[in-house]
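## Example pair
The file below holds two records. Each record gives the amino-acid sequence first, followed by its structure token line.
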Amino acid sequence: MEAVGLATYSNSKPTVMSYVSIFEGLWRQAESYEELKVHEKMQKEFINIAAHELRTPAQCILGYAELAQEFPLESLKGGEVLISIYNNAKRLQRLVEDILDVTRIESQTFKIRKEKVNLNEKMRNAINDLKAQIHNAHKVKIVFLEPKQPIYVNADKVRIYQVISNLLNNAIKFTEDGAISIDINIKDKHEVVISIKDTGTGINPEIMAWLFTKFATKSDTGTGLGLFISKAIIEGHSGKIWAENNPDGKGATFAFSIPLNA
């Protein structure tokens, strides 16, 4: 009554249903508006993060390139300048590829190319590639409980590696002390489950509901696209991906499953 300014009473079903329809429409409109506001806020945050992520490596590349031009002999000693240029160029490449992947997902042109893949081998490769990113290696250990026998699936080897790399990279980023444990298990003889458990800061409650959507991040680095892309990849393999904070309050566990005959 406070909102409308009047009240009505009727025993006529058509009249009552017309009012129900009107107010349901208003309610849905209000919900859509709230969702739009949340999405707009997340999009603005993403633009700020993406601008920062693009600017930082670009500035590093330009700075080192100018240094190499001005002092070519001195700057090439030890190869540090070239290594920094290469690393920052790779960082830019990853960001551009993530943005292109999101575009493909939304335009429904995202492709999955399946072949026989050894999951044990993919996990070992990802661990070896990412170990160098652990800045406090004396405090954080990666423990891979590798199955005795190789586990094979029909999957896109590049995309599966991308998912493993994304989840492992997140675990490394948010873990300052402790261990990152990786399991590969066959469940009910028809699907394989890969889980990555860390002892880091855990998942912020504010983004738990939005975790696998675009731009969902509480990190000072990253764009919040990795989990969104990972979800699309796993669902493209008829699988599932999920995450939860650990019961002991230390860290989180990210996991995904795909059929053995994916």
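Second record, same layout:
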Amino acid sequence: MRRPLRNLLVAALALTGSLALAGCFGDSEPTVGIAPYVQENVGGAGRLTQYALYVTNSGAYREDVTASPVNVPEGWNVTLSNASLSLRGGGAGRPLVVNVVPPTNASLGRYTFGVQVGDRTVSLGLRLVALPEEEARPRVGALVRTTGFYDNGTIFYHDMVEVMGRTDLRKGILGNDTDVEPLKVYVGGQRRIPPPEPYANAGYVPVIPGFDEALHGLRPGETRVVHVPPDLAYTYPGNEKHRLYGQALNFLIVLERVDEIPDETTTGSCPLPVCPTG
């Protein structure tokens, strides 16, 4: 009786070990989830467009999950900010940034490509259009939509319809599903210093330096993803009580419009930032 009992115990231990290894190295059921903050973008030929993906691991073990672009149109340059993601199980998440540059001779129209992470693949769309020549630059107004998220992918703010009501994205205490009005930014402004009166009267405000810098050179319709270190965000003397103090932040930014408001106090009512002289 002892030998059969011992054999049964050995078999049980072997089965337990094989199940544990299966959990470590891949279950039959997919454990990786991929949720684009925005799945469809607009861009221009030869210009950078960026996507942010929220990647999760529902498994029970830490895994180094490899990501790679797939089904990329010929001649396109598609790269990932971090192709290897270390994800602890139980739903932990990480953001993944996708950088896309179509060739300068690419035809206008809609294109698709994919990003594979572990055992999952997500499809992304990019509609190439003739972008306006105007760009966001210092001393003009910019109408932008944005989603802000921590380094673990959790959203702390958004004003984007694409994010409203989403259950595949993790939202923190500052998450917002009601206010989807674009943000009015006075580009090149300084913290706690009001912009020129025409922009201030129209509701334009300066923003944190890391966000502001990401707007420079952006054309209406384009999307950028920027990582902002604490010292370029809300971490500065006198701001210690701000709930984002000490935090590194990430923003997905879509530029909707560039505004140059005429300064009616200047002779000839010319647009900022420069008026003709003489």
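Notes on the second record: The mean pLDDT is 84. Helices lie at 2-25, 197-201, 209-215.
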